[in-house]
Design goal:
five-stranded mixed β-sheet, globular, single chain, seven-stranded mixed β-sheet, binds pyridoxal-5'-phosphate, dopa decarboxylase, N-terminal domain, about 475 residues
Length: about 475
């Protein structure tokens, strides 16, 4: 494709994207396909000859779009918001168009230095002190994996340079709770800790926060049993009910130890743009690393996860590689982000954050977050005012966990009823929510926060929920 052919097609594509976003509210929220439909609609072999652009766009409409669950739809309340602000889309398109290669500062100085700047902007915007330095990973899963790897190397005194974990006399222990995101368990297993060495610390039954006392007791027990406590992963905003572990109390427990404290704020980091929410991660300054995803609620298109550390030297010592072909005359003077994470080749991800912040502006983003918090509060009040409906977990931000609890219905029958009404709504395409288990009983998470979701959408959702739940009785 020549630049001129690209110009023509790209103009068409941008129009197509703008139309798609304008019309999204008219589409069903949930993908209306059965397993295999999309695959079977595509040829089983790649084309030998280039095809006209129009036929690709036509297949986008006919095959691809029906196979998308529309997370940008204002009636999407599933999982967590995965906002893709159009301002950030422009940044992502620019990233692709520039076609840069991020393998060293020299390979693209702008990639490195824009990333340094936007990470620092977001550090300031979330109230983190100057002792933090950040980078952008693809996902919170990678950020958590990185935190565990550097924690492992701190506890094992850089065993990677000798026998690795396999030569450690004492097993290294990771501490989390049952509420932590599944990516944490996965990262701990992949980082070689072993499932037997991941402790699930007791939580408070109501707030679902980690008990700092239980953590302290477990660490003491592990030390007595000749284990090496290594890392605590605290959740600032769990996936299930957006619970916040007491970071400050956990930091008290870890005071005077070398145990790493990582704070996973994947979803809720966005809330820290608002000073009035920062009490929720009080004590974060005492952690060793923090990560959060602008690609969730804040709205910088996937993939964009911020990872901050206080001691980049340690991170670099664990991650750095210096093959001779990457040598440059500025080594030692500049940031080499390949030494801040696992991949060598990196995309110019900072552009989407840079575009997003510059084009939308911080004030508008904060206003939207406050709107979502207000909408969640509205829903809480509406649910609480209705007989037979309940809020099943404290609402800290924008996730409202609800259950329809008709009198005399409980146990398996209640579970079946919950799944019936939520599945019926999801399948209808009118709205989408995620059923989830809380203490072994099904409930429904209403996760508010799509960029286009206004109060009237939440009001409509509540009408649909009540009507459908009653129809399912
Ligand atoms: C609290 C929490 N941590 C981590 C993750 C994983 O995020 P990612 O998809 O960026 O790996 C999620 C995803 O929803 C999450 O809610």
């Amino acid at each position: 494709m020549t630049p001129e052919e690209f110009r023509r097609s790209a103009h068409e594509l941008v129009d197509w994207i703008a139309d798609y976003r304008s019309n999204i509210e008219n589409m069903p929220v949930r993908a209306q396909v059965e397993p295999g439909d999309v695959r079977n609609a595509l040829p089983s072999q790649a084309p030998q000859q280039g095809e006209p652009f129009a036929s690709v766009v036509s297949d986008l409409d006919k095959i691809v779009v029906p196979g998308i669950t529309q997370v940008q739809h204002p009636m999407h309340y599933g999982w967590f918001p995965s906002n893709a602000s159009l301002a950030s889309v422009l940044g992502d398109i620019t990233c692709a168009g520039l076609g840069t290669l991020g393998i060293s500062w020299e390979s693209c100085p702008s990639l490195t230095e824009v990333e340094e700047v936007v990470c620092d902007w977001l550090r300031q915007l979330t109230g983190l002190s100057e002792q933090w330095e950040g980078t952008i990973h693809d996902t919170a899963s990678t950020a958590c994996m990185t935190a565990l790897l550097i924690a492992r190397e701190r506890t094992s005194n850089f065993s990677e340079n000798s026998g690795g974990l396999q030569s450690e006399v004492k097993p290294l222990i990771v501490y989390t709770t049952s509420e932590v995101h599944s990516s944490v368990q996965k990262a701990a297993l992949l980082a070689g800790f072993g499932a037997d060495n991941v402790r699930s610390i007791a939580i408070d039954a109501i707030s679902r926060q980690m008990s700092a006392t239980a953590l302290q007791d477990q660490i003491r027990l592990d030390i007595e049993n000749q284990c090496a406590p290594c890392c605590v992963i605290a959740s600032a905003g769990t996936t299930g009910v957006t619970a916040f572990d007491p970071v400050d109390e956990i930091a008290d427990v870890l005071e005077d130890t070398t145990i790493w404290l990582h704070v996973d704020a994947a979803m809720s980091g966005t809330a820290m743009l608002l000073p009035e929410c920062r009490h929720l991660w009080h004590g974060v300054e005492r952690a060793d690393s923090v990560s959060w995803n602008p690609h969730k609620w804040m709205g910088t298109i996937l993939d964009c996860s911020l990872f901050y550390v206080k001691d980049p030297e340690h991170l670099i010592r664990v991650m750095s590689t210096n093959p001779s072909y990457l040598r440059s005359t500025v080594d030692g003077e500049v940031t080499q982000y390949r030494d801040w994470g696992i991949p060598l080749g990196r995309r110019f991800r900072a552009l989407k954050l840079w575009f997003h912040l510059r084009l939308d502006g911080v004030d508008a983003i904060k206003q939207r977050i406050r709107r979502d918090l207000d909408n969640a509060l509205w829903l809480v009040n509406a649910v609480e005012a209705e007989q037979d409906w309940c809020i099943v977990a404290p609402v800290t931000l924008q996730t409202v966990c609800i259950r329809h609890q008709p009198q005399n219905m409980n146990g398996e029958a209640l579970d079946q009823h919950t799944l019936n009404w939520v599945d019926r709504i999801n399948q209808s395409g009118a709205a989408f929510m995620s059923p989830s288990k809380l203490d072994e009983r099904w409930m429904v998470r209403v996760s508010i926060g799509v960029e286009s979701t206004e109060r009237h959408h939440v009001e409509r959702l509540w009408r649909v929920i009540r009507t459908t739940a009653h129809e399912c009785l």
